[in-house]
Amino acid sequence: DTGVSQDPRHKITKRGQNVTFRCDPISEHNRLYWYRQTLGQGPEFLTYFQNEAQLEKSRLLSDRFSAERPKGSFSTLEIQRTEQGDSAMYLCASSPPDRPSYNEQFFGPGTRLTVL
Amino acid sequence: KQEVTQIPAALSVPEGENLVLNCSFTDSAIYNLQWFRQDPGKGLTSLLLIQSSQREQTSGRLNASLDKSSGRSTLYIAASQPGDSATYLCAVRDTGNQFYFGTGTSLTVIP
């Protein structure tokens, strides 16, 4: 399978714990995005990487959230001191570098987080 | 800030009917617009991407149009099938690198 993959697919944690999610983009894609989606809503942009550089962060991304893409390949999203309001689906997407499709996003299956 | 609205929120049609889903956005300074489908509990599947300089894109039974000046896009689905049942989302990219999604239209095609 050469699509975007995310791990784990589901995570249940207790309030106050830290969690980390991983995203592996399509191999030749240099752009990577993280989104959060709650029930009945569209995805909300969290952050964007071009290669290893984090170029944009949403104001929604509190200090408890941090994302990395150390070698410009896979990315991790960490949430520290989780709160019940963090329960959501966390989606990762990647985009290819070349025209004409370089703005087309390809999404992974998501990681569903439940904070008890 | 860009705001994206999708109407209707839900739609139920009998199999075989043609249908139109609507997407509107408040800031016409967009780079492109992309339509997705999402099945329950799953990620998003890209359907069509329209660059800001384009008026429409077609793929099989799907046709998407873009009127940037009026801030509107439509997704036309011809001869709907039960397998088309899903939530359809539109997303616009602003002139930076942020994408803004609507809340989606939940489509049910009744056999």
For the structure shown, list the relevant keywords:
heterodimer, A: mainly beta, four-stranded antiparallel beta sheet, 11 strands, B: 111 residues, mainly beta, five-stranded antiparallel beta sheet
Number of strand elements of chain A = 11
Report the average pLDDT across residues of chain B: 94
The percent range for helix content of chain B is under 10%
Q: Give the class of chain A from helix and strand content and strand pairing.
A: mainly beta
Instruction: Spell the H/E element sequence of chain B.
Output: EEEEEEEEEEE
Number of DSSP helical runs of chain B: 0
Q: Helix and strand succession of chain A?
A: EEEEEEEEEEE
Oligomer kind: heterodimer
Q: Largest contact between protein chains? A: A-B, 29 and 25 residues
Poorly predicted regions of chain A: none
For the terminal residues of chain B, how far apart are their CA atoms?
41 Å
Low-confidence residue ranges of chain B: none
Proportion of beta-strand residues of chain A: over 45%
Structure class of chain B: mainly beta
Give the termini separation of chain A.
33 Å
Main pleated-sheet profile of chain B: 6 strands, mixed
Explain this structure.
The complex is a heterodimer of chains A (116) and B (111). In chain A, the strands form two sheets. In chain A, strands 2, 4, 5, 6, 9, 10 and 11 form a seven-stranded mixed sheet that branches. Chain A starts with a strand and ends with a strand. In chain A, 0% of the residues lie in helices and 48% in strands. Chain A is mostly beta strands. Helix content of chain B is 0%, strand content 60%. In chain B, strands 2, 4, 5, 9, 10 and 11 form a six-stranded mixed sheet that branches. A five-stranded antiparallel sheet of chain B has the order 1-3-8-7-6, with no helix packed on it. The model of chain B has no long low-confidence stretch (mean pLDDT 94). The termini of chain B are far apart. The relative contact order of chain B is 0.35. Chain B is an all-beta fold and 111 residues long. The interface between A and B is medium-sized, with 29 and 25 residues.
